[in-house]
Amino acid sequence: xxxxxxxxxxxxxxxxxxxxxxxxxxxxxxxxxxxxxxxxxxxxxxxxxxxxxxxxxxxxxxxxxxxxxxxxxxxxxxxxxxxxxxxxxxxxxxxxxxxxxxxxxxxxxxxxxxxxxxxxxxxxxxxxxxxxxxxxxxxxxxxxxxxxxxxxxxxxxxxxxxxxxxxxxxxxxxxxxxxxxxxxxxxxxxxxxxxxxxxxxxxxxxxxxxxxxxxxxxxxxxxxxxxxxxxxxxxxxxxxxxxxxxxxxxxxxxxxxxxxxxxxxxxxxxxxxxxxxxxxxxxxxxxxxxxxxxxxxxxxxxxxxxxxxxxxxxxxxxxxxxxxxxxxxxxxxxxxxxxxxxxxxxxxxxxxxxxxxxxxxxxxxxxxxxxxxxxxxxxxxxxxxxxxxxxxxxxxxxxxxxxxxxxxxxxxxxxxxxxxxxxxxxxxxxxxxxxxxxxxxxxxxxxxxxxxxxxxxxxxxxxxxxxxxxxxxxxxxxxxxxxxxxxxxxxxxxxxxxxxxxxxxxxxxxxxxxxxxxxxxxxxxxxxxxxxxxxxxxxxxxxxxxxxxxxxxxxxxxxxxxxxxxxxxxxxxxxxxxxxxxxxxxxxxxxxxxxxxxxxxxxxxxxxxxxxxxxxxxxxxxxxxxxxxxxxxxxxxxxxxxxxxxxxxxxxxxxxxxxxxxxxxxxxxxxxxxxxxxxxxxxxxxxxxxxxxxxxxxxxxxxxxxxxxxxxxxxxxxxxxxxxxxxxxxxxxxxxxxxxxxxxxxxxxxxxxxxxxxxxxxxxxxxxxxxxxxxxxxxxxxxxxxxxxxxxxxxxxxxxxxxxxxxxxxxxxxxxxxxxxxxxxxxxxxxxxxxxxxxxxxxxxxxxxxxxxxxxxxxxxxxxxxxxxxxxxxxxxxxxxxxxxxxxxxxxxxxxxxxxxxxxxxxxxxxxxxxxxxxxxxxxxxxxxxxxxxxxxxxxxxxxxxxxxxxxxxxxxxxxxxxxxxxxxxxxxxxxxxxxxxxxxxxxxxx
Length: 991
Description:
The protein has 22 helices and 42 strands. The protein is of the alpha+beta class.
């Protein structure tokens, strides 16, 4: 704690010097930084946040009221000045599921060699695209070679016409701007570098104290280094000094602010772009102007809410709700300014997310970690090394403030001390050593209660300690860890609003005192923001006729129910499998639960028979019962699986695993079964066996059938008959899907996993092979895409004896900012894969599939009941879509809970020259062919399968050396995934 005292003296000296030298530009400002969360009662100025009062009794911080009633009981003691400098504290950014070719369940295929004269159909002629070079503000716009080669596809027509028209509302709000209004972009540099919260206070005081020099303008601030003003300041370069107090007992801290004019622009270019000016056809949207208006519209909510990414959260939207584990859920809203066919539109949506509860560190840990809950009963006990790691993992990088003295300082936790509190000493000013506990007793009259707990280390380089019991979690920190199942359920319940309720919440935001239209900033920049949702006309596509198995009474049907579901009560699956050799393995379970295995075996066999699937009534060996701890021991688990596999003479088609509960050993089970042994497995829980419902058994049967090589349904009218202009029976087409799954936000070392799937039967196109690869941590571009596509094309060639004449590639998980990068690198990889085959250049369509967006569609009252979701097949390709590019929204599923989220399909590259009707019909028809259910799914199946495959690949990652702790070192190279067993490699084992 001597370090703390030295910093106090240094702070006094620095602040006094700053006050005496405000006008001396030669003096360097102190690099010390501070962070601050103010309230209406803090010192002599007001913070812009107006949430509820801090439950700890201080005039700073806006706690959410779940504390343990800390009051400022230490005010009578001498207050220390701030501890060593803090790191700038930033809020976490949040940002952000027919004829059939005989595929069967063959397990061994001869791998074809490349660059031979395979039968390759002639590729349709590809349109040559010409890139022109328009002029903007007198300057010639020259795109680089990449942009010339891969220009984003334009909409081929004025939109589709098929389907029944329906009037809808979308949560897009028109934003009209004056194209003659100039915007002045200034760069702002503040020394010493403050946190975002402190930076906004500086900007606010800057405007209040220097209004004449700023031409009486009311500029907006992005929280970093950019200011936009509707009026030009009197000087192009301003040097100003702003002083703000840090604590009641210290002099104000002086910040030097330099403001420099960067550019100025008006709205003519975006207006011409949005109005489809011919000379701007190849010019990208002027992003600078859009970004400036986005900052303008975010200024009001930022002053009144907790910002997180593109969302804002406030207790005024329904309060905070505890969800357990030291977390609370806050309601809020998302907003984003988007270019659309109607002009600029503000997309506003309801949002819910989890934050850390603002309570004392000890109570927080007692809520989050089980072993900390009875801490008061065992104060004399120290934490084990494993428990200490868990505590450090929970607190690392979290911001805290202290409750033993008044200060605006906020501290970031870097770790825990090696020693417990009672063993910590520090050098005093006179050079002698002082005990930490004695220091707090002498200085504050406070007796440390938890002597056997470590302290928080709040400096990266110097020994600077804070006892846990004197620290409080700062409010407004997003919960980045993985939520438990119970926490997730509570979050989903809070966010699960029916269309009528969600629409009312969004309307309230737009008309409320904290929404994007609440401040005066819009008027200053001459913006007119509509408070009414956009009305538009959508279309409801007709469901396709479906073909089922020949053995049932019903062999084809059209799902005309409002939810577009169908049942298989009188029907068989389209292609069934025969499972002669299978086994059951039980993990855990009570004696009573284990006694249901025999009944389960009979009922599952009977349900399979009703669906046309043959599952032998008897397993090849008696059910094997193992305790749950076997799942936690990979070596033991592998020996058990090998034993049951060998007992089947190495010919086990299926292993059904029944578990007492969910267990992390599920990942090891799948990895060992599919990569080390070669067994297709199907897992279920004893809790489902107790009910033994017909629906549960049917779902299980459909998954088993798909994994072994069968399929549930096919289109009665094949794709060639529905889209004859592009597809032919004799010219096979491949549909591919790709996705990348990343580790949770607090993990900064585990590799990402990429997966690509491809259909290998035509024209049914309902069976897919997969390829999975690990790659660099959080790398979104698929690194080994060329080889993955090559291998899938080889599988396609082996199945159909010819290569596909067309490739339709659906890519999941790509944000709009990554469109050009993904399209350039991944489209190039696909083309390179094709070039590995002799004289093979098929036309390629590359479409991005976005499910994490915030556009919602609401039926009008005269169309459907206002509390109903839009019907499956609802498509929108006008008004709210991109002004020129080829995109559309399709809601292919029925929303049972909450409000349906349509999927956004954005065609980036289209050498096949689809029309709007053709690509929409293709996607909607494919949504009916998903193998696991009897209803259309929300997302096109190739992407759904790729997502499942990528998740399965993430289970294969070796976590034996992973402690789960955050490391800030270099990212390790991704280790390859284990190779799949040959006998399941071409099966849909990941379903």
